[in-house]
Design brief:
Layout lengths: L6 E10 L2 E10 L4 E11 L7 E3 L4 E3 L2 H5 L4 H9 L2 E6 L4 E5 L17 E4 L5 H5 L3 H9 L3 H4 L3 E3 L6 E5 L10 E14 L2 E15 L3
Antiparallel strand pairs: 1-2, 3-12, 4-5, 4-6, 6-7, 7-9, 8-10, 10-11, 11-12
């Protein structure tokens, strides 16, 4: 089955003494998955914060300072970013968001519209035993790309958040899960004063 095709029809032909008999079978291809464990995203507020690219598992620090200036290298990073973490100091809540979240305090050329849904019915055991097929089964009924929003606010340790990447993004139309393992104040070199960190594991579909 060619790369990028998720459904195909295969025809089998059997020739016996009575002649040829054919049968058609639909084959559904499930994208493989990759687990990015132990990721840390830091944030000062809704202006200075880190972001994650599901296509390569890299955390990009301080998007505003490092990647908002318009040049080819920065635009290439913006095209990859699917997930952003920030801390809403006005309401004292942690937030997982996309780049098209209107509450962000900076502007980029590329704003991938990842969509998120908090997945209350998925247990930690479900997450730890994920397979390509079970990821599809756990997320398909939610229709994240249609029912999800640009952010999930008030996340807590133990939360599992489903996401679907922007159909126009480089890592296009992939689903995944974020498991929040830690949330707490901290210090980090690229933000002055007290920052906040989200410690998480992320599982996402990857290209064939």
């Amino acid at each position: 089955i060619p790369e990028g095709i998720n459904q195909a029809k295969v025809t089998f032909s059997v020739i016996d003494d009575m002649g040829k008999v054919s049968a058609e079978v639909d084959v559904h291809v499930v994208a493989p998955i990759k687990n990015y464990s132990g990721r840390e995203l830091f944030a000062k507020n809704n202006i200075f914060n880190d972001a994650f690219a599901s296509i390569d598992g890299i955390v990009y620090p301080d998007i505003k300072s490092n990647y908002s200036t318009v040049n080819s290298d920065n635009v290439a990073v913006q095209e990859k970013i699917d997930i952003l973490f920030y801390y809403d100091r006005n309401n004292n809540v942690s937030v997982i968001s996309s780049l098209d979240d209107s509450r962000l305090g900076f502007d980029l050329n590329i704003k991938n519209a990842t969509r998120f849904v908090k997945m209350d019915d998925i247990t930690e055991e479900d997450f730890m035993s994920l397979t390509p097929a079970s990821l599809v089964a756990l997320t398909q009924e939610v229709s994240i790309i249609y029912k999800g929003s640009s952010q999930v606010r008030g996340i807590r340790v133990g939360d599992i958040v489903g996401f679907s990447t922007d159909i126009n993004a480089i890592h296009s139309f992939k689903t995944g899960l974020i498991k929040v393992n830690g949330l707490h104040p901290t210090n980090v070199d690229h933000y002055e004063g007290t920052a906040y960190v989200m410690e998480c594991d992320i599982v996402t579909q990857v290209d064939q």
